[in-house]
């Protein structure tokens, strides 16, 4: 509802069964994105870290759900306090909400809005996990998720989307999470890896993805679930804005995938499946804040720009020496910044609001607002996340030992392996292999190179193979 408009009782919205059903479906789609992310990340790590990577996403489903019910929804969407956090006692434990009570100004129940936003809260810390692959204690990670959701995500969600939140009141446009989700998670990833350091063998040993089919499955499910993530964020279908966002989501994702692949072919000489998956995710990230304010042509431009720049950005970790294992910074942080800033150029003023970007005669005003949102969320999340990681590291220790990291975090933290070649099951202790038939669990000599993550074909990263060139035969522990 536009700010400052008061409706008469007779004009008050009534519960819409259609919108309510639609939002419940969208909530389920967004929930699916967290297991999809687990598959996406799980395929990109080495064999010995697969289960840990899956669990780092799955544990967020448990922890954040409970915290959201207890107090998270109240902090994020309760009555504003100082433009920084919210609080409403009726939302604590979701105990004071009527079953047909409507979210203010909309035709869906508060319960539906709460569960939809819960799914955003779940996936955001899970995104961070990709930067920390192979080296973080599971108990430390679980504690970090709980603290980070409380200290960072819940307040930032209020800034961006809560009535009275300072970025919301300023007019920063973030349709579905460019700042609150992707920049927030990307900045947190950078803060944590600066504290915990690099993986053993970073820039020396090949660290190739063990299952590209699993990566593609995860990417496809993310693409599917993202329609609920984006189109559902309008909370209904009454005015066509959600439909525009649905179309723009598809268009931008396609453009980003093609742009990433084109860059890969020109730069490295090959079209890779991992490049296609990464490009698609980059487009999904970039259109998330912008898709409700631009046209489909604008979405093509946003997607193409994001695909190109994110493909270039994933190599920055080699130049600057930070170990972003699965390119959370290169894809989610950079993609979120691109999408958020490009609102200031491509907003037409004819979709979700009348705010216009530079290319549509709006001048620099909206771009300035978008830049403020980007800088504020980045700075707060970076500093707060680094401090949380530092406290955990100094108290209980955040990293596994070097020996345990080399051995394999799956065995150390979960007493399981992802793949059992003995035929005896996948439980603890089943690490035997078929003698002379298959490599031991954890051997990655048959894995394909990580294009865009551990440098693409034609680069100078260890363990890669240039088209027509000689592949390395160095054998390392996976």
Question: The biggest beta sheet, please?
Answer: 2 strands, antiparallel
Structural class label? mainly alpha
User: What is the terminal separation in angstroms?
Assistant: 54 Å
**What is the gyration radius calculated from CA atoms?**
22 Å
Shape, principal axes of CA atoms: globular
Helix content: 55-70%
Strand percentage? under 5%
Detail the poorly predicted runs: 1-10, 426-478
User: How many distinct helices?
Assistant: 15
**SSE arrangement, N to C:** HHEEHHHHHHHHHHHHH
Mean pLDDT level: 88
Strand order of the largest sheet: 1-2
Number of strands: 2
Structure description:
The chain has 478 residues and is an all-alpha fold. The protein is built from 15 helices and two strands. The protein has a two-stranded antiparallel ribbon. A hairpin with a 3-residue loop joins strand 1 (80-81) and strand 2 (85-86). The longest helix is centred in the last third of the chain and has 31 residues, at 365-395. It is globular, with a radius of gyration of 22 Å. The model is unreliable at 1-10 and 426-478 (pLDDT under 50).
In short:
This protein has 478 residues and is mainly α. It contains 15 helices and 2 strands. A hairpin with a 3-residue loop joins strand 1 (80-81) and strand 2 (85-86).
List descriptors.
478 residues; disordered N terminus; mainly alpha; disordered C terminus; two-stranded antiparallel sheet
Topology:
Layout: H1 17-44, H2 50-77, E1 80-81, E2 85-86, H3 110-128, H4 138-161, H5 166-170, H6 178-196, H7 212-231, H8 241-268, H9 273-290, H10 296-313, H11 316-320, H12 328-346, H13 365-395, H14 402-407, H15 409-414
Antiparallel strand pairs: 1-2
Helix pairs in contact: 1-2, 1-3, 1-7, 2-3, 2-4, 3-4, 3-6, 4-6, 4-13, 6-12, 6-13, 7-8, 7-9, 8-9, 8-10, 9-10, 9-12, 10-12, 12-13
